[in-house]
């Protein structure tokens, strides 16, 4: 029979440890975030609904985005045990240069709407993390200011082709003069997708003060104070705009562009050319034949054509068709470092993440972006160790089963 006794103080004392208090409220919020989903929940609380929904939402019924995320959830990772994984190398080569992680920060529009630190915060994190960052044509910090914010970062410039080709050419020249490494042409936006959350929220640029937004301001005072007391929003590619995102895209972008126009881009850009928004094997082969150095399998995060092909499912066929003629990157639906590892195992040369770091930005500015990068990097490293691989180059289709 078990005998009971009162515990002695010497036995209790080692158990009575207090956790050091984190004084800074931003650090306190972020240290509770263990996953990208945690950052998303914090971002949702701290950001006006229309801004959060612009980031979080997709087109129409949002089927494309759900399918992409669900496929990552459903795949099976297949480990090999009894391997020495005390140390793993997460680095890889992207466009012939080293990247500390097999992912880059994707281009996102209107980033200073999410948090006033905007693109400058994101590129500084990319610089410290040793990964590339792509500035969007629709960015809210100038090409030159982003380059100055992180002088040693690997910067890419993402281009939408405008109806005014001279304006687009001027942007390309500015990017080259500022030392940008690569040009990323996005080709899946001949017209704006139907992003219904934005329509229902009455989302405009800049935000329109209505009874609804004033009420929302009362719920998110710090966001509004930061917006109204910092430098006014300035776009990388135009001086100002009053209206909805869809109206902006349909006004500026050229729906007549074809693969033949890649020759025009090649005539004004001497560096690596990445084509983003490829959704079929045939289109992948066409743009590589036309001179693309890399392609991004992407359905624009589900924000353009709903029920579009899921990039991860398309990946093996495209890799087989392209061979070593161009690099193949993948985005859409990535919320975990294990998603990145799975894509690399199936043949991707790198992944692009967008929403993941934007959730961090909304949750805590530059420190939130750093937290997002840290979470993804930790997950990549741990997944590789549990799979039994010492380097990214060891990943193969044997490590993944896609249903």
Short description:
Its cofactor is FMN. The protein has about 400 residues and is of the alpha/beta class. It has 18 helices and 12 strands.
Provide a descriptive summary of the structure in words:
The protein has 403 residues and is of the alpha/beta class. The chain has a single domain (25-401), classed as Alpha-Beta Barrel (TIM Barrel), CATH 3.20.20.70. 45% of the residues lie in helices and 11% in strands. The chain is built from 18 helices and twelve strands. The chain has helices spanning 9-12, 25-31, 36-46, 49-56, 63-74, 111-114, 118-129, 143-149, 165-177, 196-201, 211-219, 221-229, 245-252, 262-268, 281-289, 311-322, 337-345, 355-387; strands at 76-77, 92-94, 97-99, 103-105, 133-135, 155-159, 182-186, 273-278, 294-297, 327-330, 350-353, 400-401. The strands form three sheets. The protein has an eight-stranded parallel beta sheet. The protein has a two-stranded antiparallel sheet with strand order 1-12. A two-stranded antiparallel sheet has the order 2-3. Strand 6 (155-159), helix 9 (165-177) and strand 7 (182-186) form a beta-alpha-beta unit. Helix 7 crosses helix 8 (143-149), helix 15 crosses helix 16 (311-322) and helix 17 (337-345) crosses helix 18. It is globular and about 85 Å long. The chain starts with 8 loop residues before the first helix and ends with a strand.
């Amino acid at each position: 029979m078990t005998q009971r006794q009162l515990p002695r103080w010497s036995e209790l004392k080692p158990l009575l440890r207090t956790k050091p208090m984190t004084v800074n409220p931003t650090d306190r919020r972020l240290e509770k975030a263990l996953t990208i989903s945690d950052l998303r929940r914090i971002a949702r609380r701290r950001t006006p609904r229309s801004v959060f929904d612009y980031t979080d939402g997709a087109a129409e019924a949002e089927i494309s985005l759900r399918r992409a995320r669900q496929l990552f959830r459903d795949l099976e990772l297949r480990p090999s045990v009894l391997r020495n994984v005390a140390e793993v190398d997460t680095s890889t080569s992207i466009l012939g240069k080293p990247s500390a992680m097999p992912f880059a920060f994707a281009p996102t529009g209107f980033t200073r709407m999410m948090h006033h630190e905007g693109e400058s915060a994101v590129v500084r994190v990319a610089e410290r993390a040793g990964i590339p960052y792509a500035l969007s044509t629709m960015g809210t910090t100038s090409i030159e200011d982003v380059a100055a914010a992180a002088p040693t970062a690997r910067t890419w410039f993402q281009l939408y082709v405008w109806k005014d080709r001279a304006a687009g050419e001027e942007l390309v020249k500015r990017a080259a003069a500022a030392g940008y490494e690569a040009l990323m042409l996005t080709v899946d936006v001949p017209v704006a997708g139907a992003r219904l959350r934005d329509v229902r929220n009455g989302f405009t640029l800049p935000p329109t003060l209505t009874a609804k937004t004033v009420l929302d301001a009362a719920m998110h005072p710090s966001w509004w104070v930061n917006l109204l007391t910092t430098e006014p929003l300035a776009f990388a590619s135009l001086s100002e705009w009053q209206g909805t995102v869809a109206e902006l895209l349909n006004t500026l972008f050229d729906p007549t562009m074809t693969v033949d126009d890649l020759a025009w881009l090649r005539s004004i850009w001497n560096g690596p050319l990445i084509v983003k928004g490829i959704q079929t094997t045939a289109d992948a082969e066409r743009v590589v034949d036309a001179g693309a150095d890399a392609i991004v399998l992407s359905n624009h995060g589900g924000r353009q054509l709903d029920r579009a092909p899921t990039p991860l499912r398309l990946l093996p066929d495209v890799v087989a068709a392209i061979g070593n003629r161009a690099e193949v990157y993948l985005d859409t639906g990535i919320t975990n470092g294990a998603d990145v590892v799975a894509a690399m195992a199936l043949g991707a040369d790198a992944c692009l993440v967008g929403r993941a770091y934007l959730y961090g930005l909304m949750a805590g500015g530059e420190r939130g972006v750093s937290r997002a990068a840290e979470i993804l990097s930790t997950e990549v490293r741990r997944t590789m160790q549990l799979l039994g691989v010492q380097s990214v180059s060891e990943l193969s289709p044997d490590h993944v089963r896609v249903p």
